[in-house]
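Researcher: Here's my situation. A collaborator sent me these components and asked whether they could plausibly form a single complex. I don't have experimental data yet, so a predicted model of the whole assembly would be a useful starting point for our discussion.
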Amino acid sequence: MIDCPFCGAENIPGIDDCEECGQPLSHVQNTAPENEIERSLIKDRVSALSPKQPCVVSPTATVGEVLHEMATNRIGCVMIVDDGKPVGIFSERDALMKLNTEAASFGDRPISEFMTANPETLEDSAKIAFAVQRMDLGGYRHLPIVSKDDQLQGIISVRSILNYLTERMPTSG
Amino acid sequence: MAVDVHLTLDSDTVERVATSEPLCVDVGATVRETLHAMKEKRRGAVLVCEGEKLAGIFTERDALKLMEPGADLDLAVGQIMTGNPETIADSETVGEAITKMSRGGYRRLPMVDPDGRPKGFVTVSSILHYLVGHFPSVVYNLPPNPHHSTQNREGA
């Protein structure tokens, strides 16, 4: 059987479109999962990675407040949220690249001037394969998870993906 | 045929996943110089060296603490680096790197040669990229969006 990567329904091999949701399955036919890991990746949803509750601030929070919060609580990134929707992300990398040695002089400016706006997000019902793809191709370390109506649900890290994968492959470690 | 991931994790050495040419600074370099170098080279971590030997590591996480008002950017990086960091030898396997990283909660490990000279970094992202190489079709052949607009079949 072929699991539809869109809705998860099982389909008969060779079928053109998913019986359940009507999405084309042609690309899936050629790439049927060959082992347990591949099967898990296109079956499990990102909610199975238990997205963590991120540190959330408003777009008007100051750079000084955000940096203090990150440094004190050893937080790698904060989500900038407006009306429940993720409008930006600000990470240690942003701090290093955009503030650097000038950080103190930007202390009173709003974080919205330095955040990465409109970050890529993933719906909580998406399959883990999509999260792996986004993380690997985009080089992201964090991926915000949203509900259907774009409300922030949590955040997953590249480490949680690595843990998920290594739990599914036997290692000598 | 699917590659046996288990087998390669226990036989491939970390050299296959490590980034090359790590950014190195001398223990005597100031924090200011170090932060500027990290920005210019776009690196999230630097290896702090004494001569040719690895003495410590300084990361963007450490940098955050120095962005608060009143921080002394003229301190030597050797005074605030994490000394004697956990390293991985270039002859060790990818599986061993994963074990070390998850055990210590590290996001990156400096890779050193038998003489203790830094050769690169092994990061969580570089390991993920290596793993994805074992099952490229299920990851890279995905459609651009997890949910297309047509959630219901027409006429259904």
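Model: Some features of this prediction you could bring to your collaborator: DSSP finds seven helices and eight strands in chain B. Chain B has a mean pLDDT of 88.
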